[in-house]
Amino acid sequence: MRRNKKTKIIIIGTGIGNDLKNLTLESYDKIMKAKNVYCRIDYEPIIQKLKEKGKKVISLTPFYEKFSSFNKTYENMARFLIKEAKGKGEILYLVPGHPFVCEYPTELIIKRAEQSEIEVQILPNLSFLDSLFVDIRFEPGLGMQFIAASEFFKKKIYESISPDLISVIACLSDKLQPGRKMTVYDKFIEFLSNKFSKEQKISIVYQDPYSWEQKVIRTKIGEIQKYKQVLTTYRATCVIFPRKRR
Asked: How many domains does the chain have?
C-alpha cells in the first residue's frame, strides 16, 4: 500500500526504570529533536525527566477520565493520534516499556494508520518481561504462557491455560468495566481457585511506587488476596511455576 511520506507516527518504548539512560541512543535523539511528542500516561518517571530537560510532552492521560472503558479509551487515543499526525506531519508517541508488550493502543494505531496510508515506525525498548526473567530467575524457553488477566473473560483462553507450563499473568485491574459483573482482579482470583491448589506457590513481581524498582513477593495462592492492593495498584505481574519443572 502506498503511504503518504509526509505523514508519520513514531512509537517509542521508554523502557523500564526511572532514568533517561534506559532509553536507547536512537530513541533519546529522536525525542529531543522532535517537535510533536505525545505520551500515553504522564506520571512515568521518564516523562518527568524529559520535562525537566525542557521537553514539551502532551499527555493522553485525560482520556482515561473521559471514557467509561479501556476499549473506548484506546480507540479514541488512536483516532486522536492519527488526526494529529495528519495535521502535523510527524509525531512521536511514547509508551512505557516495549510498544508491543501490553500496549494495546499500538495495534489500534497501526491498523488506523494503514487505513489512512500513514507510515508507522516502531522503536522498541526493554519491557517488564525482560526484568521479570531476571527477578524470578527463569528461562522462558522451558515453556511459558503469557497473558493479560483481562483475557480470562474469553472462555477459550480461560480453558486453554495449562497448569503444566510456567504462567505469567499481567495487567490486573480492580476497575469494573461496562457490561461485566466481575472486575479483572475478581476473574483472576476465580481462575486461580479453579486451576490451582491453595498450596501452589506464586510470585508477585511489582514496581515499587517510590523507587520504581522491581520487587518480588513469594507466597501461596491461598494467601494471594492479602496482596490485593499490590496486585491492582503497582503494575504487578504474577508468575506460577508448575509443580514439576524440567
From this structure: 2
